[in-house]
């Protein structure tokens, strides 16, 4: 299965690439209430969690856990 193209407009993220593309190997999207949660697994230095599921009532209730501020 091919991975979907992930678009991101956060240009100060380490994984942001030209054309608003995300180059992260793993992308973890979480509900806002878990945004500060420590994640138990990692791949390529990116943390994620496969042990729980959540329900979001809309886009505004979600956030990208993969964000890492780009160092210039």
Structure characterization notes:
With 72 residues, the protein is mostly beta strands. It has a domain of 47 residues. It is 0% helix and 22% strand. It has no helices and 6 strands. The chain has a two-stranded antiparallel ribbon with strand order 1-2. The protein is globular. It comes from Paenibacillus aurantius. This is DUF1540 domain-containing protein.
How much beta, percentage-wise? 15-25%
How many helical stretches? Answer: 0
Largest sheet report: 2 strands, antiparallel
Order of helices and strands: EEEEEE
Instruction: Trace the largest sheet across and list its strands.
Output: 1-2
Percent range for helical residues?
under 10%
Mean pLDDT: 79
Uncertain segments: none
Radius of gyration: 13 Å
CA(first)-CA(last) distance: 35 Å
Number of strands: 6
Instruction: Estimate the global geometry from the Cα principal axes.
Output: globular
